[in-house]
Automatic annotation (TrEMBL):
It comes from Bremerella alba. The chain crosses the membrane at residues 7-27, 47-70, 77-102, 139-167. Residues 90-226 form the Fatty acid hydroxylase domain. Its main location: membrane. This is Fatty acid hydroxylase domain-containing protein. Coiled coil: none annotated. Keywords: Membrane, Transmembrane, Transmembrane helix.
């Protein structure tokens, strides 16, 4: 697959899902938003533009290009056995998704990584743009991890494209402020992470923040003991974000978002810290 085709496929899927979820949020919102949508969307979407440009400048090779390179050298675990293409694609998507899950847990557990990742969690509202809001340094680090997985696994290039499209689409879906009937949510979350499932992960209550790490497949949370069914206070009353960061000028404006990892704060990690006795429910 050529770089131009890859770009067109990914951009088309990205815009289609973004527009679809934004429309769904408009006509069937799950929660009332607390922050002006215009300013939040401008900052979150501007961060995406910065991240895309930075990745193109800093990283000379994409995950798809790395897969093509590994294929030309016959590198990777998948080259040890001659499996049908569809099996390799399925296995590659599973391995990539597990890697993203483990990376997510690591970003909560390692102080330096949490400094970067808390930009994502500091969003005071939860909607489709939250699923795209990550600090530039986190995006670059995540890309390096993905490249390492590609070299070790040796997946077909088409598998990388499929996973990238799925991850981007499901991230926007499960961060969206959309309403699903309870019975339908129960069914869907057996296959893919739903907004109600992932919203728990954005609770200010730390033990809820450290649950539901999956972005795409929910199975790793089920199997590895990090699944939490519902937020303690319910979806309508739960507070979104981080207790340490409630100033809109700091967490909802682009300069503050970019500088957030460099602030000296007591929250060295998300994992391993107890919740404040009452602050979580009163913030």
């Amino acid at each position: 697959m050529s770089p131009n085709v890859e770009m067109i496929v990914r951009l088309t899927c990205f815009l289609s899902v973004l527009i679809a979820m934004a429309a769904w949020e408009l006509f069937a919102p799950r929660r009332a938003l607390k922050v002006a949508k215009t300013s939040r969307w401008f900052s979150n979407l501007a961060l995406i533009v910065i991240n895309t440009i930075a990745a193109r400048i800093v990283l000379p090779i994409t995950a798809v290009a790395a897969a093509l390179f590994a294929e030309s050298r016959e590198w990777g675990v998948l080259y040890l056995i001659d499996w049908p293409l569809w099996v390799e694609i399925f296995l590659a998507v599973l391995v990539f998704d597990l890697a993203i899950y483990l990376q997510h847990v690591m970003f909560h557990a390692v102080p330096l990584f949490w400094r970067l990742h808390k930009v994502h969690h500091a969003d005071l509202d939860f909607d489709v743009t939250t699923g795209l809001r990550f600090h530039t340094l986190e995006i670059l680090l995540s890309a390096l991890i993905k490249l390492a997985v590609v070299v070790v696994l040796g997946p077909p290039a088409i598998a990388v494209v499929v996973f990238e499209v799925l991850l981007n689409a499901t991230s926007m879906f499960n961060h969206s402020n959309v309403s699903l009937p309870v019975w339908l949510d129960r069914i869907v979350r057996c296959v893919v992470v739903t907004p109600d499932m992932h919203r728990v992960h954005h609770s200010v209550i730390r033990r809820e923040t450290n649950s539901n790490f999956g972005f795409n497949l929910p199975w790793w949370d089920f199997l590895l003991g990090t699944y939490r069914d519902q937020p303690e206070l319910g979806h309508d009353k739960m507070d979104i974000g981080l207790n340490e960061y409630r100033d809109q000028s700091q967490v909802e404006q682009l300069p503050g978002m970019l500088l957030l990892p460099f602030h000296k704060t007591p929250d060295s990690t998300a994992i391993g810290r107890d919740d404040a006795p009452q602050a979580d429910s009163d913030s």
